[in-house]
Amino acid sequence: MLFVIGGNGTHAGANAIHDECRRRRMQVAVVGVPKTIDNDIMLMDKTFGFDTAVEEAQRAINSAYIEAHSAYHGIGIVKLMGRSSGFIAMHASLASGQIDICLIPEVPFNLHGPHGVLQHLKYLLEAKGSAVICVAEGAGQDFLEKTNAKDASGNAVLGDIGVHIQQQIKKYFKEIEVTTDVKYIDPTYMIRACRANASDRILCTVLGQNAVHGAFAGYSGITVGICNTHYVYFPIPEVIAQPKIVDPNSRMWHRCLTSTGQPDFL
Questions:
Q1: Which helix (H) or strand (E) holds 30?
Q2: Predicted structure pTM score
Q3: Fewer CB within a 10 Å sphere, N or C end of the chain?
Q4: What span, in angstroms and rounded, lies between the C-alpha atoms of 61 and 47?
Q5: Closest listed residue to residue 191, CA positions, set 30, 84, 79
Q6: Could you report the per-residue pLDDT of 88-132, keeping only the tens digit for each?
């Protein structure tokens, strides 16, 4: 029995091992357990690590909020994980109630122009005196120089959108001669490395138990997960066909927009 724990890439590897075991007619059960804080595995309500990531992100957002509201024309920027999906940024923004602008990979935006992020920031400073931005790491990559570099896992190395936004904000307000105090927080590894909360610990325990039950029952090439609140077995090819992303027309994203009050930045 082989239990493989991870996200889409890990499950793709598990599927390849399962196919090779079948080709060789080996009596090996390969079962996956979804563990990714990005919550980007298809068909699943939630993956192990997501709840903890959203909860821990609140600490960074709260720090940015305090820094921004304690300064004259303070702007707090928090960059959260999410290469291709903005679930952490969306849920953290919605949960905190302290975010004025939430930027995710699934929703295009402009920084400059009459409807851009910078113009809205200017409005926020005039109306509220401060602002807090939450941005997913995969958002706004069109604004950054492409390097075609790959990391050890074969993923494209992303440009740092958080630093780019910070620089553009400072440049914009300097040009229009408005004093600002910009604070940038990147809590990536604090979130990745923290202990799982109670909700995730229970989820992990149940997923692990169900994975073992599935292997003992003779299943292979499957992964365990929650679908419509039920614990079920999925064929691995179905869940790795494509990553799960935020639907810009979904109620949850519109709830987030209602919470932030942000316009379309196009």
A1: strand 30-34
A2: 0.94
A3: C
A4: 22
A5: 79
A6: 999 999 999 999 999 999 999 999 999 999 999 999 999 999 999
Tokens 């316009």 belong to residue: 263
Count structural domains, the chain.
2
Q: Is residue 42 part of a domain?
A: yes
Token code pair at residue 240: 């790795």
Written as one string, the DSSP assignment of 155-204 is PBPPP-HHHHHHHHHHHHHHHTT---EEEEE--HHHHHHSPP-HHHHHHH
Q: Is residue 265 part of a domain?
A: no
User: What span, in angstroms and rounded, lies between the C-alpha atoms of 117 and 58?
Assistant: 22
- The answer to whether residues 146 and 209 belong to one domain is no
> In which domain, by residue range, is 204 found?
2-47+197-240
In sign, the C-alpha dihedral spanning 231, 236, 238, 244 is positive
How confident is the model over 24-50, as pLDDT tens digits?
A: 999 999 999 999 999 999 999 999 999
Beta-carbon contacts of residue 235 (< 8 Å; ≥ 6 apart): 221, 222
Q: Which of 19, 38, 100, 160 is catalytic?
A: 38
Q: Which residue has the tokens 């903005």?
A: 86
- Please confirm, yes or no, whether 186 is among the known catalytic residues: no
Name the residue among 155, 136, 156 with its Cα closest to residue 147: 156
H or E element, residue 215: helix 198-216
Pair 45, 229: CB distance under 8 Å: yes
Pairing assessment for the beta strands 222-227 and 2-6 based on DSSP bridges: unpaired
Name the one residue in this structure whose structure tokens are 């200017």. 122
